[in-house]
Design a protein that fits this description.
alpha/beta, 7-stranded mixed β-sheet, globular, 13 helices, 15 strands, binds pyridoxal-5'-phosphate, 4-stranded mixed β-sheet, 453 residues
């Protein structure tokens, strides 16, 4: 086959993938002229849509001016301005920004910076990073160590740290079998138990996705959750790392996901929406205390990559953020998100729709066989895959959430992360195709005797 040599990580090697020709706004076209509405914005990436001329023009101008310089000897103007802009977006004064190229790298930097900060502050034993079950923080060895995705980890266990994990705030299927609000946020208080068990003197940081991403798409912790987490972190001198790789920069209808809880992390990471797919760039933003401690002790950090903060990627990031602010896209995301949330609720009339959750332009839909018992369909049914394929035939790109959200094997869910620029008409059309796809797969399940009408 034409693509046999292309071992693309996500590619099902048994079939050809369409070859993309162009992206325009929220649409994707392939070389055969087929057209799709992209309801995943890549995978939570292309928040301003494709083909935005002001961004492209600024990138071309930058390439004509300067391509690459060695980070060890030079900085560059877009990099300085992008760092400044990111700091402006934070709710409180943060200390500095470290650039990298992907979300995994940004989280890797966050883990290492947390360790360096404690070391420089004289807490030399602190190194453990606590995270949550059902989380995803990336695919490099450090970020994979704090991830909970067994199918992606199993081959590499000898390389991974066995870091502790607390229960996920997955209220639809509370892992502690409790109910909000009578649970009194037991899942958040678990952090204190685990810190005490591991020894506070050993624990460096707690990392979390403010709104859960691909593993339990759209699960949104209750309003009290992060204040409890923040208090526990402060009590034990444990840094709070917000992995805003997907939730950052407008996706949830705010600058950052944690803004909804009014909580400030010590470190936050952003990636996907930062340059919105126009170039790879990610950033780790650190507090003043971290910045100053490292500056006054080690004198600097060693978390660089060759391409960190390169002029082209930073120009793309800056141009995207400028475009978002000129067009008030975060306000638009909030407003369109409310419309999307309301329209998504209509899908509850399909009896296999179990849960719809999320905020802004970031939602998850979980499917069940029986709404009362919340039983999932067996994994062999391949429900999510079938819905995604049916939608694809219907001209709609959907992102499959990780399979196995219920017990690691079973559990079907979609992640909806449309571009912030979707109009209501485009949302309506996407939802029409989504409903059609879900209903047609549901009818098939009835015909196959897998589901009763
Ligand atoms: C919350 C979160 N963190 C980290 C990552 C890893 O980012 P990347 O794939 O850019 O390395 C992702 C990617 O999906 C993510 O959703």
């Amino acid at each position: 086959m034409d693509q046999d040599f292309d071992a693309n990580f996500y590619r099902d090697l048994s079939r050809e993938h369409p070859v993309v020709d162009r992206t325009e706004g929220v649409y994707v076209f392939d070389e055969d002229g087929r057209k799709w509405i992209d309801f995943g914005s890549g995978i939570g990436v292309t928040s301003i849509g494709g083909g935005v001329q002001p961004v492209i023009e600024k990138m071309v101008a930058q390439l004509e001016r300067a391509t690459f310089v060695f980070n060890g000897y030079f900085t560059n103007r877009p990099r300085i301005e992008l760092a400044r802009k990111l700091l402006e977006l934070c709710a409180v004064d943060m200390g500095g920004v470290i650039f990298a190229n992907s979300g995994s790298e940004a989280n890797e930097v966050a883990i290492k910076i947390a360790r360096q900060y404690h070391y420089d502050a004289g807490n030399t034993e602190k190194f453990k990073v606590i995270s949550r079950q059902k989380c995803y923080h990336g695919n490099t060895l450090g970020s994979l160590s704090v991830t909970d995705r067994p199918t992606w980890q199993s081959h590499f266990l000898p390389y991974l740290h066995d870091f502790p994990k607390i229960s996920a705030p997955y209220c639809y299927r509370c892992p502690l079998k409790l109910e909000y609000p009578s649970c009194e946020l037991r899942c958040a208080h678990e952090l204190e138990d685990v810190i005490q068990k591991e020894g506070a003197e050993m624990v460096s940081a707690f990392i979390a996705e403010p709104v859960l991403g691909t593993t339990v798409a759209g699960a949104t912790p209750p309003k009290e959750y992060y204040a409890i987490i923040r208090t526990i972190c402060d009590k034990y001198n444990v840094l709070l790392i917000a992995d805003e790789v997907i939730t950052g920069l407008g996706r949830t209808g705010a600058n950052f996901g944690l803004d909804h809880w009014g909580i400030t992390p010590d470190i936050l990471t952003v990636a996907k929406g930062l340059a919105a797919g126009y170039a790879p760039v990610s950033a780790t933003i650190v507090s003043k205390a971290i910045f100053d401690t490292i500056a006054n002790t080690s004198g600097g950090h060693t978390q660089g990559f060759t391409y960190s903060g390169n002029p082209l990627s930073c120009t793309a990031g800056l141009a995207v953020l400028e475009y978002m602010s000129e067009n008030e896209l975060i306000d638009q995301a909030r407003a369109t998100g409310e419309y999307l949330a309301k329209r998504l609720e209509e899908l509850r009339d399909i009896d296999i729709v179990g849960d719809i959750r999320g905020c802004g332009m970031f939602y998850g839909i979980e499917f069940v066989r029986d709404r009362v018992k919340k039983n999932p369909f067996p994994a062999e049914v391949g429900l999510t895959r079938r819905i995604v394929e049916r939608a694809y035939q219907n001209g709609l790109i959907l992102i499959a959430g990780m399979p196995g959200c219920v017990d690691g094997v079973n559990g079907d869910q979609l992640q909806l992360s449309p571009a912030l620029v979707f109009t209501q008409e485009e949302i309506d059309e996407a939802l029409r195709r989504l409903r059609k796809s879900v209903e047609s797969v549901r009818s098939e399940l009835v015909e196959e005797g897998v589901h009763s009408a």
